[in-house]
Design brief:
The structure is a single chain. By secondary structure, the chain is α+β, with helices and mostly antiparallel strands. The chain has helices at residues 15-18, 26-38, 55-58, 70-79, 124-132, 142-145, 150-162, 174-180, 189-204, 261-270, 274-286, 291-302, 309-319, 340-346, 349-358; strands at 10-14, 50-54, 63-64, 85-91, 94-99, 103-107, 117-121, 136-140, 169-173, 210-220, 226-237, 247-250, 256-259. The protein has 3 domains: 1-143 and 247-259, Orthogonal Bundle (Arc Repressor Mutant, subunit A), CATH 1.10.10; 147-242, Winged helix-like DNA-binding domain superfamily/Winged helix DNA-binding domain (Arc Repressor Mutant, subunit A); 260-358, no CATH class. Helices cover 40% and strands 21% of the residues. A 3-stranded antiparallel β-sheet has the order 2-7-6. A 3-stranded mixed β-sheet has the order 3-12-13. A 3-stranded antiparallel β-sheet has the order 9-11-10. Strand 12 (247-250) and strand 13 (256-259) form a beta hairpin. Helix 12 packs across helix 13 (309-319). The chain is globular and about 70 Å long. The model is unreliable at 241-245 and 323-344 (pLDDT under 50).
């Protein structure tokens, strides 16, 4: 049995699975990556097909602002595997369907989320397929985890598999690429190109340990029209000092909210949630506030003793420091600066926040 190397944060994805036909969303691919980091590692035996994903061991892979719902988050992704599998083409007349998992067991430890786990049983032939594979891709799990689009992940695995082949140069038929990614035949090539090539190009380059260029190879149809026949790729390794980290919070229903780098700056300074940071940034942009003005307002608010600091910030972003409020005279056009603290302390910021966000 071939042992995997690199530790559990390094995954090995066999070429057979990379080129198989399946349609997984980004979070399902995350689960497969985490699993492929465990299979064959350490004391794993050839006969073993049962693997545990312990929440305490993997939640650090996501930079979660709130770890209390990490189990619900992973459970939501794993549940989508129920009744789901992939298809391999064995030869011209034969293909094989495998379920991703033959059994899934959810074990939640109430009051101790860190000890909760999900137990996954692989089909024995799938385990054998992984362990006996001679070709495939080794990669750090953190890179595909930070890709937000499912086709970016699929293309990343393919590019990693081929990065050492012929200097990273290879050609793949466009029809085969469509089949691998389970694109319906009815979808126009132009739209497919945008989803499986253009968007991944923007995301993979600069955010992972590789970069790539591609060139379309056209063919002439019987009708005389030109159509995409194949794609030529050139893949290069990139030395990265750090990776792009996603900042996200998990809601009680297991849904995630991801923060941009700009939003994370607000979170770190203001100690607010991802959603609140998004609300603040959206209101600042809507009211044409500069970044300097925004952070001045955030720092000003931190020095104030207010119950609803988010509502307080939203109010200033919309009205400015010197705009009239309901406490000023109806015909007044200027803020009475002497009444600033009194006026703000009496405003219903929760109501004001909802009013702004509903506009």
């Amino acid at each position: 049995m071939k042992k995997k190397r690199g530790g559990t944060e390094i995954a090995f994805r066999p070429q057979t699975i990379i080129e198989a036909r399946y349609d997984l969303d980004r979070r399902q691919n995350d689960i497969i990556d985490i699993l492929l980091g465990i299979v064959g590692e350490g004391d794993d035996t050839e006969e073993n097909t049962r693997y545990e994903i312990n929440i305490g061991d993997v939640k650090h892979l996501y930079n979660l602002q709130d770890e209390s719902n990490a189990y619900a988050y992973l459970q939501k992704a794993v549940k989508k595997f129920e009744g789901c599998g992939f298809r391999l083409k064995e030869d011209e007349g034969t293909d094989i369907y495998y379920p991703w998992f033959s059994k899934i067991k959810y074990q939640k430890k109430r009051g101790d989320e860190g000890r909760s786990k999900i137990v996954l049983d692989l089909h024995p032939e799938v385990k054998q397929m992984i362990m006996s594979a001679k070709q495939g891709a080794y990669y750090r799990i953190e890179y595909p985890l930070n890709l937000s689009k499912k086709y970016s992940k699929r293309l990343y695995y393919l590019l990693k598999d081929r990065e050492n082949f012929n200097g990273g140069n290879f050609i793949i038929q466009f029809s085969e690429l469509r089949k691998m990614m389970k694109i319906p035949d009815s979808y126009a090539n132009g739209n497919v190109k945008r989803e499986i090539l253009d968007k991944p190009y923007e995301e993979i380059n600069g955010n992972t340990d590789i970069s790539f260029e591609y060139q379309l190879i056209y063919e002439k149809l019987p009708s005389g029209q030109q159509s995409i026949g194949a794609v030529q790729f050139k893949v290069k390794k990139v030395n990265r000092n750090r990776t792009i980290v996603e900042y996200e919070t998990i809601e009680k229903n297991g849904e995630s909210v991801v923060a941009t780098e700009e939003e994370q700056e607000i979170i770190e300074l203001f100690d607010c949630s991802v959603k609140e940071a998004k609300d603040i940034l959206r209101t600042a942009r809507k009211n044409e506030r500069t970044k300097e003005q925004l952070f001045e307002i955030l720092n000003y608010t931190l020095r104030k003793n207010v119950d609803n600091k988010v509502g307080y910030v939203l109010s200033i972003l919309k009205n400015g420091y010197n705009e009239p409020t309901k406490l000023t005279a109806k015909n007044s056009n200027k803020w009475n600066n002497e009444d600033l603290n009194t006026a703000y302390s009496q405003m219903d910021f929760a109501q004001f926040e909802q009013q702004i966000l509903s506009n």
